[in-house]
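Task 17 of the worksheet. Students: predict the tertiary structure of the chain below and write it out as structure tokens. Keep your answer in the requested format; marks are given for formatting as well as content.
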Amino acid sequence: MTLKGENMKFLDQAKIYIQSGKGGAGCVSFRREKYIEFGGPDGGNGGKGGDVYFEAAPTLNTLIDFRYQQHFKAQNGQHGQGRNKTGAGGDDCVIRVPVGTQIIDEDKETVLMDLLEPEQRIKFLKGGDGGFGNTHYKSATNQAPRKSTPGWPGQEMAVWLRLKLIADVGLVGLPNAGKSTFLAACSNAKPKIADYPFTTLHPNLGVVRAGEYDYVIADIPGLIEGAHEGQGLGDRFLGHVERTSVLLHIIDCTQDDLVKAYKTIRHELTEYDAGLEDKPEIIVLNKADALGEELSLDQKKTLSDAIGKEVMLMSAVSGQNVKEILYKLGKTVLKEKLGVADDEEGKFEP
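Model answer:
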């Protein structure tokens, strides 16, 4: 059982400015050759401006590159030329973003595009069409037109990029519940935990292997009362567990009021209003080693009776029940994500 990751700066929001290319102008030209006294019009059309595309790149998992480059512009189309030469089209601009990135309007509310699939590529801004050369306007009644049109302008706008991690398991709980310790305990050796600092908070993202399967765990910084309203940046971090298959709710079993601790987090999930409260939930009391077996079992029974749900005991420090919880998470992820039947769960036996 291993946990993999690598250190890098993490950025989950960025504002960028994008512009498609404008079309090239049409050309006014007439055929001029020796012995041909009345050469007709031969002005070519302008080339089309380049489009702007967004592409979901599976190799990216942060928006950090957009801290250093905010302006993206497709190439303009070339002008038309004589001898009926059409101008070359402008090169497209392809902006590569991590899978799970939303393209949001400047108002920071309207979602314009959601890139959920690896290699997904969508045209976002269309380049301007090229203008017509004077050959286009030749007719029986106007055999020497001197008319051409300029190319159509491109489109430009400012958008926000917002990354919502595509994780299978979301860790939630109050501060100091032991979520990061649990993530570290997912490896018998020293785990490599990807450390992504936002401001002064450090969410972690790791890959856990359980049996034959890998799944991704997102450790969200401790939530506090009012998190759904942005207290402690909670609303921003809750966005990262919107797409998880299951929530692992970790509670410190040494605190006085377990029921209040549980209900505080459940309230924040419900008020955030993104379906988080309906996700499958595994409830774990952590730090069982600090209380001893008898007291920790009493705490487990107290919470289970009060909320009417199954509660598991764990000590992330000593490793007690960590493996069992990882396999239970793996089973739940497969059921929710892939629709795996119960008879296939044997592959997750520790």
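Marker's comment: The CA atoms of residues 121 and 349 lie 39 Å apart. Residues 1-9, 187-202, 227-234 have pLDDT under 50 and may be disordered.
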